[in-house]
Write a structure and sequence with these properties.
By secondary structure, this protein is mainly beta. The chain has one domain: Porin, CATH 2.40.160.20. Strands 1-2-3-4-5-6-7-8 form an eight-stranded antiparallel beta barrel. β5 and β6 form a beta hairpin. The two termini are 26 Å apart.
Length: 207
């Protein structure tokens, strides 16, 4: 009976969900413009809520990235005229921290802003290369039904390579950057998660 109770409690904190949004790239072609050349992105997530402050989630995400020098007025980029278009698939493990005591099990607090960070792996499908990534971001979650949670989030993925866009640096081939010039990409969107098991103890007849 004790083992069964612990098992129920663990499942009660477990969620599965889906995500849909946009993705875009930051790098040599696009150094700083946010939400530049956005592409659709979607995926799935599994989350385990340790308590009302911390949660661990596993994500799988598919999206698109693109960039074109001709979209920018910079004279050097106009002459260079580089462009790329690729899709990516990533898997990452993230730790979430809730600023307010949020836990879908008790529903005492129905919303909370949160931050997340973790580690993952990304495959650029058009280029066939794999990259280690560090995901990080902010979000807002809201429990609008007893077992449903809505998430709004915006995050960035730091890569450890400078070949995401096919451009090794922002100058000529003989130029060596004075700072670390690795590429990034960003994901923003909405997710909805469903708590698989409800063992709150409330009788459905009187609920």
């Amino acid at each position: 009976m004790l083992f069964f109770s612990v098992s129920i409690f663990s499942q009660n904190k477990f969620e599965m969900g889906i995500f849909a949004g946009t993705s875009y790239y930051l790098g040599d072609i696009n150094p700083s413009r946010q939400f530049y050349s956005v592409a659709p992105s979607f995926g799935g997530t599994m989350r385990y809520n340790f308590n009302n402050r911390y949660a661990l989630r596993l994500n799988g995400l598919y999206g698109g990235l693109s960039g074109d020098d001709l979209d920018f007025n910079n004279e050097f980029q106009q002459q260079r005229a580089e462009f790329f278009n690729t899709n990516f698939f990533e898997v990452d493990l993230q730790l979430e921290f809730n600023f307010m005591p949020f836990l879908p099990v008790d529903n005492k607090t129905l919303f909370s802003p949160f931050v997340y960070s973790g580690i993952g792996y990304s495959l650029l499908l058009a280029r066939g290369n794999n990259q280690l990534i560090l995901p990080m971001g902010i979000g807002f979650k809201y429990s609008f039904r007893r077992r449903l949670t809505l998430n709004f989030e915006w995050g960035f993925r730091k890569t450890f390579a400078d070949n995401l866009d096919g451009v090794s640096n922002f100058g000529s081939e003989d130029y060596t950057s004075a700072f670390h010039n690795n590429d990034w990409y960003s994901v923003a969107g909405i997710g909805i998660s469903f708590r698989l098991f409800d063992s709150s103890g409330n009788c459905p007849v009187y609920e």
